[in-house]
Design brief:
This protein is an all-alpha fold and about 120 residues long. The protein has five helices and no strands.
Length: about 120
């Protein structure tokens, strides 16, 4: 019976390690893409920007339990949070040498944030 008590904690640790792995690997892929496109961004800068840009998703995740009874508004709120996070990351990462190729970097950032949000909400 003691093992059953610790199971939720074990699964939470696995989820946290999975999220950190996706964050680091996804950021590394974005870093390589930015470098190939001609950007002069460092990996630590990319890691920090992606991490800080998760703030809209965290805010949305705390508000969503209160508005889950309104499915249309809830979906709109999720999309708004992901677009906000993508815009904030893009505005910090896209420099003048990447202005012409911004959509090539914004789309993978958008997909990474959609994946992060789907890990939380399950949808």
């Amino acid at each position: 019976s003691n093992v059953l008590f610790f199971l939720p904690f074990i699964f939470r640790v696995q989820v946290i390690s999975w999220i950190l792995t996706i964050w680091v690997v996804g950021t590394y892929i974005l870093f390589l893409l930015a470098r190939v496109l001609g950007g002069s961004v460092s990996f630590s800068q990319m890691l920090g920007v992606i991490g800080y840009s998760l703030l809209p998703l965290i805010i949305a995740a705390t508000i969503l339990p209160f508005i889950h009874a309104l499915p249309l508004f809830s979906m709109f709120f999720k999309v708004l949070a992901v677009v906000w996070a993508t815009y904030s990351a893009g505005s910090l990462l896209i420099q003048e040498e990447l202005q012409q190729k911004s959509s090539l970097l914004l789309y993978p950032i958008f997909l990474l944030f959609v994946y992060f949000f789907s890990l939380h909400s399950g949808a």
